[in-house]
TrEMBL record:
Residue ranges occupied by any NADP-dependent oxidoreductase domain in the UniProt entry: 18-313
Protein's name in the database: Aldo/keto reductase
InterPro entries: Aldo-Keto_reductase, NAD(P)_OxRdtase_dom_sf, NADP_OxRdtase_dom
SUPFAM superfamilies hit by this protein: NAD(P)-linked oxidoreductase
PANTHER family assigned to the protein according to its UniProt record, in alphabetical order: AFLATOXIN B1 ALDEHYDE REDUCTASE, ALDO-KETO REDUCTASE YAKC [NADP(+)]
GO molecular function, one term: oxidoreductase activity
Taxonomic path: Bacteria, Bacillati, Actinomycetota, Actinomycetes, Kitasatosporales
Pfam families reported in the protein's UniProt record: Aldo_ket_red (PF00248)
Entry keyword Protein transport: no
GO cellular component, one term: cytoplasm
Gene3D superfamilies, alphabetized: NADP-dependent oxidoreductase domain
Keywords of this entry: Oxidoreductase
Amino acid sequence: MTMRTRNLGTTGPQVSALGLGCMGMSALYGAADRAESVATVHAALEAGVTLLDTGDFYAMGHNEMLLGEALRTAPAALREKALTSVKFGALRDPEGNWMGYDGRPAAVKNFASYSLQRLGVDHIDVYRIARLDPDVPIEETVGAIAELIEKGYVRHVGLSEVGAETIRRAAATAPIADLQIEYSLISRGIERDILPTTRELGIAVTAYGVLSRGLISGHFGRDRQLAAGDFRAHSPRFQGENLQHNLNLVEALRKIAEQKGVTVAQIAIAWVLARGEDIVPLIGARTRERLGESLGALDVTLDAADLAAIEKAVPADAAAGERYPSAQMAHLDSEHRP
Ligand SMILES: NC(=O)c1ccc[n+]([C@@H]2O[C@H](COP(=O)([O-])OP(=O)(O)OC[C@H]3O[C@@H](n4cnc5c(N)ncnc54)[C@H](OP(=O)(O)O)[C@@H]3O)[C@@H](O)[C@H]2O)c1
């Protein structure tokens, strides 16, 4: 299979049409198997996936060290094609509690120094603050990344979960490759004013939560036991009646998937791929099996009739429950309505 490619905006690199998000290999979705995680990164690289996303606060360095190990042990020819996308800025205590964000220039450079070491690389391809620090103007945070670019430690500036006004201010400070933000059949908020803004400014979208953290993967059932540290144990969309409502949407989607001879996850990923050449879904696969299923989405073509049927089965605002618990929603600049 030849991997399709997309551009990370008008100023960023060319990347595989699907990126691999490594978060779940270390944190937030229950136990993961380290050897299988490394094997999944290798399998992704072999399949032509070039974009690998992580964050320094995913189990406090664990995810970066895991990715570093995977890169170190990959064949050199594949390692050279790999592009790292790293988030920083989230402050967490030893129990994993979220304590805010730090986007001060000195902090940005400090975070980057640790990330370079943990990843074992001489530069980071795309560097972004995970959430806007409300106490630091975005110009200062982006300006610090621009200084790291001048010194060769970073290649491109990215953004994460910020709204249209912040995107404009950031883009006026330095070229922005992409905005990383949640986008899926049941998280379509960006279509209102964020996506028109990124398109106007030539910024790509790296979409996460394309399977709504497994909820619309077709593999998630009411009987799933979630550990206390699992994000989904606290996510409004996975609770009680909301969960049942959302799983009913999945069953409507399953009928369409079955008619096309594909899986629910594949149709959900294919739908995001079909929303525009400027959108790169980040797949949260933690095993080679899930990765293989996700990559199959690249072969799914959705025609106008398919898209209409999907829209009917899962209308734009059909999901029950917000995409984050309220305390975390408050940190989303992208959700602050002008
Ligand atoms: N910028 C931000 O604020 C932000 C926030 C969250 C995530 N991210 C990034 O985006 C990446 C993707 O997000 P996400 O992990 O929430 O995405 P996702 O793809 O919506 O959810 C991944 C979960 O779906 C389940 N799943 C079921 N079938 C799957 C399949 N075929 N392929 C992949 N996963 C399947 C997996 O659970 P099982 O393994 O149990 O099957 C996995 O834990 C993350 O890894 C992270 O790098 C960024």
